[in-house]
Amino acid sequence: MSPENVSARLRPGGTPDRRRDRSPVAAARRLSRPAGVLVLAVPVVCYVAAVDPGQAGHYPTCPFLALTGYECPGCGALRTIHALAHGHLREALGLNVFAVVMIPVLAFFWLRWTAARALDRPVRTRVADPRLIWAFLGAVLLFWLVRNLPFGAVLAA
Hints:
Radius of gyration: 22 Å
Pfam families: DUF2752
Strand content: under 5%
Largest sheet: none
Number of domains: 1
Structural class: mainly alpha
Keywords: Membrane, Transmembrane, Transmembrane helix
Number of helices: 7
Oligomer: single chain
Number of strands: 0
Protein name: DUF2752 domain-containing protein
């Protein structure tokens, strides 16, 4: 922020001006990024719902699967989204249970971000306690490992 912007935000006594811009233009500007994510996500989900990822030739192969022969944590996610779009929850859970669990989590964080921007409140920069983030990373790695072991075939797509 430039010095002239800082001085413009100070009251005559030198205290900061806490008033927020409540104009419709400012609200639209604040909501532009969450809306942009939604505008990009909806057509992608609609395309995946319309074009079956289970049929060859429509989507590229997972690079990790192509190189190693093992499934990554995301393998089966497109087919999971396709199944969910058609209301087949049991099939989606069989394809990639981790993706099914993460969709509501991602929706929660998008809604929290959108609400913060709509109310002109600061967006939290810290998503969660670092221990929770490390536990999540551990769960992803464990899921990745187990789904590629013989007894974890139930987690494989």
